[in-house]
Amino acid sequence: MSCALFGFHCPPNFHLVSGAARTATVRAQHALTIFDHLIELGREDSAGMGLHPVECWELATAVRYSSSLDDREFISSELGELGDLTREVKDSVIGLNAQGINAFVWIVHEFSRLEELITRAAQSSSHSSPRQQAELERLLNALFDKINTSLQDLLSALDKAVPTATLASDRGRRIFGALRAEESAKEKEWEEKGWAQWLRDAPGPKGRQLRRDLELTKASAEAVVGVWEALEGTRESLLSYRDNVGFFKVRSFLSPGLAVRSVHSARLTPPFRVFQAGVVGFHLSGHGLTVEEEMSSLQSVVGEMRTALAEARGRTGAWRSKRPNALPAPPKG
User: Fold this and answer.
1) Which of 13, 60, 134, 293 has the fewest CB atoms within 10 Å, i.e. is most exposed?
2) Would 219 be classed as within a structural domain?
3) Is residue 191, in this structure, part of any structural domain at all?
4) What superkingdom does the record give (predicted)?
5) How far apart are CA 189 and CA 28, in angstroms?
């Protein structure tokens, strides 16, 4: 215990192995947090996977050809474009799900290599020379570089997907407002009819068209607000996912005080962790765990990553078997 707490009477390679294990564990825990965002985004009942562009295209056709709304041409066009954007967002979610799983196949592989590398060092019965310590740190940094490279393409794809989701969400909000305005106008028109005029018009074409317009605007507004909420939920998920990926790639070589300030200024999604440059120094500022406890913690997190990856790949396979070959093209005209 004096070794873990005070650094005295330590077994061979204690500081090197414990520091390397703790550094790898912290990185693995944050990678697992990123993977949780990926799993959440790709769930079959998530907001992104629940987007239905066909619904928007059908509404566009109904508003254009079955209503007498004053702005029917404009609203129909906006609904059609909302359908196009919704389809693009859903395609992005599907692509990010596949791309993320592929990236994490390699990330889990690299963490497994880290685990093996540190385990071999822990089993060594002799003290490591400064040269061997430098070599181990070089190998650790090389593996972290590979993990960061695996995440770079994913981060670029997220940077492209977020603006599209934001644009689609904003368009949905504006269309919802326009439909509510049309609905209020039709309700006012209906209420302003005198009793005699209402009895005269209700059975005829004008009355039927007015009732149809009211029903269509209400149904359209309800459908659009559902799409809008799903798009906004997808946008928030993408932002959180992107921030966590970006934060994983940040390496801090600052003093602890400066590092913490830099984390707060980044305004990223929790949990926040700061990585020091030296694995030995990182352990000495840690929790005073034994080598066995550090290794057990690392093995546990890497095991969680393997389990999560297996579940995600199994879910993707089941989802693909139910997925249609392609989304239909938007209606023309």
Assistant:
1) 134
2) yes
3) yes
4) Eukaryota
5) 63
Does residue 258 belong to any structural domain of this protein? yes
3-state secondary structure of 247: helix
Relative orientation angle of helices 72-123 and 130-191, to the nearest 10 degrees: 160
Q: Distance between CA 247 and CA 323 in Å, rounded?
A: 33
Task: Give the amino acid at 25.
Answer: T
The tokens describing 181, both together, are: 């305005």
Helix, strand, or coil here: 11? coil
**CATH code of the domain containing 266:** 1.20.1170
Top-confidence residue, 280 or 28 = 28
Place of tokens 């404009």: 74
Residue 26 token pair: 């912290």
Q: What's the burial of 148, exposed, middle or buried (CB within 10 Å: 0-12/13-18/19+)?
A: middle
Residues 102-137 have pLDDT tens digits of 888 888 888 888 888 888 777 765 666 777 777 777
Q: Rounded to whole angstroms, what are the CA distances from 7 to 17, 97, 166, 213, 292?
A: 13, 45, 52, 79, 15
Burial of 16 (0-12, 13-18, 19+ CB in 10 A): buried
Contact between 225 and 218 under an 8 Å Cβ cutoff? The reply is no
Counted residue by residue, the chain has a size of 333
pLDDT digits (tens, 9 = 90+) for 174-199: 988 888 888 888 778 767 766 555 55
- Residue 154 maps to a domain: yes
Cα–Cα dist 227/221, whole Å: 10
CA–CA distance, 139 with 122 (Å, rounded to integer): 15
Q: Which domain, by its residues, includes 38?
A: 11-320
The residues near 45 (Cβ < 8 Å, ≥ 6 apart) are none
Q: Which residues contact 99 (CB under 8 A, 6 or more apart)?
A: 153, 154, 157
d(CA 309, CA 307): 5
Question: pTM score > 0.70 for this model?
Answer: no
